[in-house]
Structure formats: structure tokens, C-alpha cells
Amino acid sequence: MPGGVVADDDAVSPLVRKAAAWSWRLLVILAAVVALLWVFKRLEIIVVPVALATILAALLMPAVDFLDRRGAPRGGAVALMLLGGLAVVGGIMAFVVSQFIEGAPALVEQVSFSIDGVRDWLIDGPLHLSRDQIDNAGNAAIEALQNNQEKVTTGALSTAGTVTEIVTGAVLVLFSLIFLLQGGRNIFAFVTQIFPLTVRDRVRDAGRAGFHSLIGYVRATFLVALVDAVGIGTGLAIMSVPLALPLASLVFLGAFIPLVGAVIAGALAVVVALIAKGLIYGLITLGLVIAVQQLEGHVLQPLVMGRAVSIHPLAIVLVIAAGGVTAGIVGALLAVPALAFLNSSIRVLTSPDPEAEEAAQEYDDGPLVKAESDDVEGI
Fold first, then answer.
1. Residues 204 and 109 in one domain
2. Residues 91 and 135 occupy one common structural domain
3. Is 325 in the same domain as 285?
């Protein structure tokens, strides 16, 4: 350098300069992600229903397109699939409720018998408690409940507010699902018009690839839920546990809610087995539920789900955990489909040949992909 003066950049190691360049760029990306998550959190009551409707659309869209290609009116096909889906879910729920109502008297009788047995064990067993001590304990529990009546009332009001949000979200899901099934491709084509003409086709290709990953995700989720229900239901039936079929139905529905749904349904099965058949059968049911959930968490979810959405099994486990930590049940529910969509979309966006990359990610329903492409190109 002139005069022997060394420039500031030359005085810093090239490794440090590269690290600094990467660091500020990563910080900018992280800030953008945090800002985006903050916006989603503020608009959660809108974002979550639309996301759920998109996932349901991925489940029903192939059937709607099949009927559409066979000459059925698009609106009629949408109405048929919606009514059919509601009928299936409603039928399962009605069956579960009716079976529980039918078996409730026997369970109540068994609960009373179990409570009497526990009371006798506390009195005559190694603890040698007196009846007065047991009665005092019951009275103390009732008194504590009465003293905390205000908190219970506040909780009920909070629950009422939550129910209102759930109803509002359900209405948004229904309306969003109807419009997505009826004209989702037109909506997507209209939204993508904000992109420059030079990249618009690539963005549309990326969107189609991401949507097909959602189709794979919902199919894999259905398979996992079915395996859970069959495994636990078969075990309960072999042990002659009452309400085996409705409990298996609840396990099937609960498997669609990551982390919490399967745990609650499995815990209910353990409680029913414990009450109806005793401690040994309760422990066996607990072992069965744990074994099935371990199979789901460590084998079915990573392998089946990872294969369906072309994501490494480790990434499936990590993204579910990250979604649960970040946004609870909703985050765990939407983490994998969001990652699947982004993974396929980004691969198409960054591929030198997006059409080849999109074709490599197609599932068995090739005509559906062609129909989607034709619809978008014709807009």
C-alpha cells in the first residue's frame, strides 16, 4: 500500500471477513423470520384456519378433481366431498358417543365398586386409616373446591372465550376450504401475479410442488392414525376391555393432533381398562399404548412421513419439537406440512430446471399435476 499504510480490510484475516459477512446476513434473515412469526402470531385466528383449510384441501382436492374430470359439476363435487367428510367424521363421533352412553352404567357401577375397594384398602390395609380421616379428606377436597369457586368461574369464562374462538375458526376453515376446493388454482394464479413476469411461472411451479407435498403429508398422517387405532383397538379387544371400538376411534381422531391427541386418547383407554378390568389390565394397556406411541414416534412418523414429504426423518422429529416449543399444539400440528411445502417449493425455485425438479417430486396422480398446470397456464 502507498506510504506503508495497510487498509483495514487487509489487516483482518480473510476467515474473519467471511465469518462477519455470513453473520450479518444470517442476522438479517433471522430478523425477517422473527418478524414473520410475530405477524403470524398476531393474526393467529386468521392464519391457523386458513392453514388448516389448505391441509384439508390437500386431502380432498384429488377426489374433487377426479369427479371433475369425470364430468361432474365442480360445485357439486365440492359439496359431495364436504358432506361426505362431515358425514364420516360425524358418524365416528356419534358412534363413539353412543357407545360411551351405552357402556356408561356399567362403568359407573365399576367405579363405585373400585372406590369402595380403595376405601376398604385404606382402612384395612397397611395404612390403617380411620373412616373419620377418609371423610375429613373428602370434606377438605369439597371445601377447597368451594373456596376456589371464583377461580373456577374465571376459568369457565376463559373457556367460553376459547370456545368462541374455536367456533369462529371453524367457520373460517369451512369457508376457506370451500373456496380453495372450488377455485384454489385461480386464487393462487391471481396471487402470483404480484411477481415479475420473468419468474411468475417458476413461482407457480414451486407452489404446485409444495401443494403435492401437502397431499403426501395428509396421506401419511392418515396411515399413521390408522395404524395407531388398529394397534390399540386390537389390544383392547383381545383383553376384552369395554368400549374397545369407540376407544380405537378416539385414538384414530387423536392421532391427527400431534403430541397431545394420541396421549389423551391413550390415557383414556388406560383409565377405562383400569376401572373395568383392574390394575393388571390397566398396566398392560399402558404398556400397549406406550409401545404403539413409540412405534409411531420413532418409526412411522419419521419413516412414513419423511418418505411422503421427501424430508429426512431427523428433520421431521426436530421440526415437530421446534413447532411445539414455539407455538404449542398448533405449532406442532402445522410444523411438518409447512416444512414439507417450503422444502418442495424452495427446491423448485432454486433448481436450474424447475420443470424437471417438479416432475421428480410428483406422486402417483400425474394427470392431476397436468390438470393443475393447464389451469394455471390458462389464466
1. no
2. yes
3. yes
> Whole-angstrom distance between the N-terminal and C-terminal Cα of the chain?
61
pLDDT for the residue 5: 47
Tens digits of per-residue pLDDT, 123-149? 666 666 666 666 666 666 556 655 655
Other CB atoms within 10 A of residue 292 CB: 23
Residues 203, 168, single domain; the answer is no
Domain that holds residue 206: 199-362
Give the Cα separation of 228 and 221 in Å (integer).
Answer: 11
Q: Is the pLDDT of residue 59 over 60?
A: yes
CA distance to 140, 145, 146, 165, 330, per residue, from 152 (Å)? 17, 8, 9, 20, 25
| Number of domains within the chain | 2
Contact (Cβ atoms closer than 8 angstroms) between residue 247 and residue 268: yes
* Spatial distance between the Cα atoms of 356 and 371, rounded to a whole number of angstroms: 17
Angle, CA 37 vertex, CA 57 and CA 47 arms, to 5°? 30
Rounded average pLDDT over 342-349: 85
In a domain, 94, yes or no: yes
Q: Are residues 204 and 173 in the same domain?
A: no
Same domain, 163 and 246: no
The mean of the pLDDT values for the chain is 75
Q: Name which residue leads in pLDDT, 259 or 20.
A: 20
Q: Which residue has the higher pLDDT, 246 or 74?
A: 74
Verify that 166 and 209 share a domain, yes or no: no
The owner of cell 399413521 is 224
Question: Distance (Å, rounded) from C-alpha 59 to C-alpha 291?
Answer: 28
